[in-house]
Specification:
Radius of gyration: 14 Å
Helix content: 25-40%
CATH topology: YaeB-like fold
CATH class: Alpha Beta
Structural class: alpha+beta
Order of helices and strands: EEHHEEEEH
Oligomer: single chain
């Protein structure tokens, strides 16, 4: 199973994509981030925990909708580090992280990658349908 639960909040379970061999891209990203920018790491981990408890925020400085129809949003730290997520009924999938200073030309590839992960998640078949209500 390429997706596994990494955290559970009051309202949402938090899942992550795992590659062959069990490596989890978002956990690797956060491990590196913790060493290079502890303040961004603390902020992002805190935001994900809050979202798991209460759902995505309406504050675009912290939580930006990328594609609401596909449930794609990103969590943003003050330092510009972002984590792209998918919203489901009862679950949030943390997909991957990046730094928003990488440039605007990377937006479409990131959306395409999040959609690919969404399709992989749905292909597993044991997950609830996408939730676009907030």
């Amino acid at each position: 199973m390429p997706f596994r639960q990494i955290f559970s909040g009051r309202q949402f379970r938090v899942d992550a994509y795992s590659r062959d061999g069990g490596r989890c891209e978002i956990e690797d990203f956060l491990t590196v981030l913790e060493h290079i920018s502890p303040s961004d790491w603390r902020k992002l981990v805190s935001l994900i925990a809050k979202i798991a408890d209460s759902g995505p925020f309406e504050n675009p400085d912290l939580c930006r909708k990328i594609d609401e129809s596909d449930g794609i949003f990103e969590v943003v730290s003050p330092g510009g580090t972002c984590i792209v997520c998918l919203l489901w009924a009862g679950a949030i999938t943390v997909c991957f992280g990046y730094n928003e200073h990488e440039g605007k030309e990377q937006i479409e590839p990131r959306i395409a990658r999040a959609r690919w992960m969404r399709n992989e998640y749905l292909r597993e078949g044991s997950h609830e349908r996408l939730s676009t209500e907030r």
